[in-house]
Write a structure and sequence with these properties.
By secondary structure, the protein is mainly alpha-helical. The chain has one domain. α2 packs antiparallel against α3. The chain is globular, with a radius of gyration of 17 Å.
Length: about 150
């Protein structure tokens, strides 16, 4: 089986499970409690990444369609941003869990939440700007629009 088909398949599976998690946030109010919103935003960003891997991969590989290099660069910039912001949210979630484990009664999440969002989006923006300035967004070895193959 071609590796590109495997990443399309796993991208579609991850996309479906991410959508299930997002729908769960609508019906299960307990998920909205701290630090549930960090998980929510990380899941939103992951769904965007999964859309690129799954749906766009299906479009390109299974239907044998191509997209221009300029469009791939633009998609790559968005995917780079989503990837790094999503990982920053995971780091914030880990930090929040450590805070809760050390002091379970710590109720200062509302004070830390804006800092989590600011730090996550700032780090994502910095990585994205760096990649854009160095012209590193584009098609890579898996034929997805992300960081170009052989970029440094």
């Amino acid at each position: 089986m071609d590796i590109r088909i495997i990443h399309v398949l796993f991208g579609l599976i991850s996309l479906v499970t991410g959508m299930i998690v997002l729908i769960s946030y609508v019906f299960i109010t307990g998920l909205r409690k701290p630090p549930g919103m960090l998980i929510f935003w990380q899941t939103v960003l992951q769904v965007i990444l999964d859309f690129e891997w799954g749906v766009m991969g299906l479009y390109r590989h299974s239907l044998n369609n191509t997209i221009s290099e300029e469009v791939c660069k633009a998609i790559g910039i968005v995917i780079i941003y989503c990837y790094f912001v999503g990982w920053s949210y995971i780091c914030c979630l880990v930090y929040e869990l450590v805070v809760k484990l050390k002091d379970p009664m710590n109720g200062n999440y509302k004070k830390r939440a804006p800092l989590y969002h600011l730090a996550s989006h700032l780090s994502g923006a910095l990585f994205t700007i760096y990649a854009a300035v160095r012209d590193q967004a584009g098609s890579n070895m898996l034929q997805i629009c992300y960081l170009k193959a052989n970029s440094r």
